[in-house]
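User: I'm writing a tutorial on reading structure tokens. Could you give me a worked example: one chain, its sequence, then its tokens, then a sentence or two explaining what the tokens reveal?
Assistant: Sure. Here is the example chain.
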Amino acid sequence: MKKTLRLSPGQMVAAEAAFWAALAACLVLAPDHLTLLSQILIFGLFAVSLDMVLGYAGILTVGHAAFFGAGAYTAGLLARHGWGEPFSGALAALLVAGALGYALSWLVVRGADLTRLMVTIGVCVLLAELANRLAGITGGTDGLQNMVVWPVLGRFEFDLFGRTAYVYTFFMVLAMFLLVRRVLRSPYGLALRGIHDNRARMSAIGAPVQARLRMAYGLSAAVAGFAGALLAQTSQFVGIESIGFNRSAEVLIILVLGGTGRLYGGMLGAIVYMLVHDWFADANPEYWMFWLGVFLIAVVMLGRGGLMGALARRVQAREGPR
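And here are its predicted structure tokens:
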């Protein structure tokens, strides 16, 4: 049985406030690492989008980078061809990725788990190859360059130190995270939980299971596209790897590391994974992937339910049975 953190409403609010306040304080405490911190926030949101379908709706997918990349290319192409306003660019990416996800949901939701795996992998590979073939539009393997992203609110330009990018990313990720949390804690989110736990029972009581799963897949794709747009805008570059299978595998690792179905699992997993990734790459440039693999295996073997599961067990052990 999955253990959850048993905190009072006041404790939960305090813990959440402390989490986001710590991230905000990084602007002052870690000014030399703002680019990495911006990417941590973006990949945390990307992992949360995957958690919406995998941890909450129970849809097995290994091709979520298709929507992340679609959002990145949407925002990137707009910025390259004369429309670099960041907020509307992110919104356009959200709509494009959401529409793509909802269209594909008619294929994904109908099948069994193995069928979903094959369909999602196939779509991701096809879109990556399409981006490669359309090099005149996407830049191909060289990536989409020459993007011009306008100043945020017409005043704050994206500087070389990453300060504007970090502040912009922080508030955009926070706003989207709060929106996702509201959706998942609504009656619709509770219905997704019920479908994840027992689809047959939800069908028996008359719940529109297929329609709700399709909507969940579309919403998740929209959030992933939004995250992709943030990465494109803050880096002002879109690489073909943003839509490749390796990116899908990476975000799945992040989510499993943090813990599925736990809302903050994706955020915590991104923080730990990317910090450890960066540390190993600096400490041992030749064999860093080996040590990263050892670390991930150790976490999975020792911490059931990821980092959030381990945290829940620790809190419950300190509080004792109620």
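What the tokens reveal: Residues 32-250 form one domain. The chain is about 75% helix and 0% strand.
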